Amino acid sequence: MAKSQQNLILSRLSKSDRALLEPHLEPADLPLRKVLEKRGKPIKAVYFPDSGFASVVANGDKHPIEVGLIGREGMTGLAVLLGHDRNCNEVYMQAAGQGHCIRADDLREAINKSVSLHRSMLRYAHAFLEQATRTAVANGRSKIEERLARWLLMADDRLDGPELPLTHEFLAMMLGVRRPGVTIAVQELECEGMIARRRGRIVITDREALENMSNGTYVSAD
Amino acid sequence: MAKSQQNLILSRLSKSDRALLEPHLEPADLPLRKVLEKRGKPIKAVYFPDSGFASVVANGDKHPIEVGLIGREGMTGLAVLLGHDRNCNEVYMQAAGQGHCIRADDLREAINKSVSLHRSMLRYAHAFLEQATRTAVANGRSKIEERLARWLLMADDRLDGPELPLTHEFLAMMLGVRRPGVTIAVQELECEGMIARRRGRIVITDREALENMSNGTYVSAD
DNA sequence: CCAGAAAAGTGCGAAATCGTACACTTTGCG
DNA sequence: CGCAAAGTGTACGATTTCGCACTTTTCTGG
Questions:
Q1: Please, are residues A30 and A52 in contact by the beta-carbon 8 Å criterion?
Q2: Per-residue DSSP letters for chain A?
Q3: How many of the other CB atoms lie within 10 Å of CB of A105?
Q4: How far apart are CA B74 and CA B50, in angstroms?
Q5: In the 8-state DSSP scheme, what is residue B22?
Q6: With helix as H, strand as E and coil as C, how does B91-141 read?
Q7: Distance between CA atoms of residues B127 and B185, nearest Å
Q8: Which positions of chain D lie under 7 Å from any protein Cβ?
Q9: Does pLDDT of B62 surpass 80?
Q10: How far is CA A113 from CA A75, A116, A119, B85, in A?
C-alpha cells in the first residue's frame, strides 16, 4: 500500500473546498501525548494528521480503553461535523507526527458555506462509526491475541515505517487488558512468525497471517 | 420520564422541514424481527420508529452481537446521512412497534434541499456514535451483569410499558455471551431487587440501582 | 562503563466466562 | 386435557483473563 504524504481528507477535497479551508489551516506539530480533545470540554480546534496517529480513549481516569484510532485517513472533531461542540472521550496522539489544524469555528463556517466540503468529511464520519462498531464487536467477542492483531494492523496502516513504537504497557492500556496479557499475546504472535520485536518496537512480518488472526474484525483504513 | 407518542427526530423538526418530508413519509408497521437494513445491501428505505426498537447487529451469521439500539429517539439509515448507501450491519426490530418510513432517495433529496433538516438528523448520528463507543467500552471492561443492566435500561427507555418482553436466549445474543450466563446475571439482579421477572418478561423495579450496577456505561437515550 | 529506570518476562491463585449437556417448568395449541 | 415446544435452571470441566508481585533484560544518561 503506497502511503501518501498528506492527510487524505484534505488531499481529496475539490479545489474550491480546499481554497475555503486553506486560509484557516495551520501546520501543527503533533508530538506524542499531545491532547487534541479533552473529555467533556468544548472542542476548540480540529486536527488533520499527515503522519502519526491519535487514539480516542474512553474512561479517562480509571480504566482507560481505546475506542478508535485516527491517522492520516481522518480527522478529529467529528462532533463538530455532527452539530455538537464536544464529545465525551479524550483524543491524544499515540504516535508522533505532523498535520494541520483549524479552529472549530472556522470549520463550522466553512462547512456552512460548502455542502460538498461537509459531505466529504461526513464520509469519514461514517468510516469512523464503522470502526467504532468493529471495536465493540472485537471487545465483545475476541481474545487478546485477536484484538492485538487487529490493533497492530490498524496502527501499521497509519505509520510510514515498518516499525511500530509500542510498549506492552501502552498496548495493554489501548486494549483495556492486563499488561502481562499483552506480553503473552505478543509472544504468541511472534512464535507464529507474524511479527518481530525488540524492546519497545514491533515489526509486522506477515500481514496476511495477522489479518487472519484478527478474525475478520480488521478492515483496512480507508 | 414522559414518553411521547412520536418519533423524536420527526417531532422536533421545524414546520418547513417537516413539510419537506411529509409527502414521502409513510406509516410503517414494525413487527418483531422485521429487517430494516440488510448487511452489505443498499439501503432502500429509512425508518423512524414511534414505538418499539430495533437492534443494530454485527457478525450476522456466526456469532451475532449487538452494537446499537434504535428506538423513538432515532432513525435507521445513518449511512444515508453520511453519504453512503449501505452499512455492514443488520438492523432489525427487537420489540414490535409502529413508525414511519421514507425511501432513501427521497430522504437524500430532502436533506439536499434543507441544511437544517440534515443537521437535525446529524445530531442523532452523533448520539448514535456515542452509543456505539459506550458499547465498545462496556464490551471491553464490564461483567455480564453490568452489561445486562445497561441493556435493560436502554430497552426500557424505548418501550412504553414497564414490561420488557425478553428471553434469556435473546439477551445472550444481544450481549454476545452464553445463555446460562444471562440466567445467572438475571438472578443476581433479581436478588438485589433491581428487577422482577416472569417467563419471557422482565420488569425494572429499581432503576437507580440498575444505573449504579451499569457502572457508568449507561446514559439515558436522548 | 556503570547505575538507575523503563520495559519485558514469569508465576500464582482467583475470578469470570465458555461450551455443552441435561432436567425441569411453563405455555400455547390441537 | 395432554403434549410439544419454548424458556429456564443447573452442573461441570476447560479456558481465558484477572490482579498482583517479583525477576530479568535492555536502554539511557552521566
A1: yes
A2: ----SS-HHHHTS-HHHHHHHGGG-EEEEE-TT-EEE-TTSPP-EEEEESSSEEEEEES-SSS-EEEEEE-TT--S-HHHHTT-S--SSEEEEEE-EEEEEEEHHHHHHHHHH-HHHHHHHHHHHHHHHHHHHHHHHHHHH--HHHHHHHHHHHHHHT-SSSEE---HHHHHHHHTS-HHHHHHHHHHHHHTTSEEEETTEEEES-HHHHHHHTTT------
A3: 13
A4: 9
A5: G
A6: EEEEECEEEEEEEHHHHHHHHHHCHHHHHHHHHHHHHHHHHHHHHHHHHHH
A7: 28
A8: 6-12, 16-21, 26-27
A9: no
A10: 19, 9, 12, 24
Instruction: Kindly identify which residue of chain A lies nearest to residue B77, measuring between CA atoms.
Output: A126
Out of B123, B134, B140, closest to residue A82 by CB: B123
Encode A114-150: b = buried (16+ Cβ within 10 Å), e = exposed: beebbebbbebbbbbbbbbbbbbbbbbbbebbbbbbb
Give the pLDDT of residue B8.
97
Residue of chain A minimizing CA distance to B175: A140
Low-confidence ranges of chain A (pLDDT < 50): 1-2
Q: Which amino acid makes up residue B101? A: C
pTM for this model (two decimals)? 0.95
| CA–C1' B181–C19 (A) | 11
C-alpha A135, offset from chain centre: 12
Tell me if A114 sits within 8 A of A17, measured CB to CB: yes
Residues of A with CB under 8 A from a CB of B: 56, 58-59, 63, 65, 67-68, 78-79, 81-84, 87-89, 112, 115, 119, 122-123, 125-126, 128-130, 132-137, 139-141, 175-176
CB–CB contact A84 B126 (8 Å)? yes
pLDDT in tens, B177-206: 999 999 999 999 999 999 999 999 999 999
> What's the grid cell of residue B1?
420520564
Each residue of A145-183: pLDDT tens digit? Answer: 999 999 999 999 999 888 899 999 999 999 999 999 999
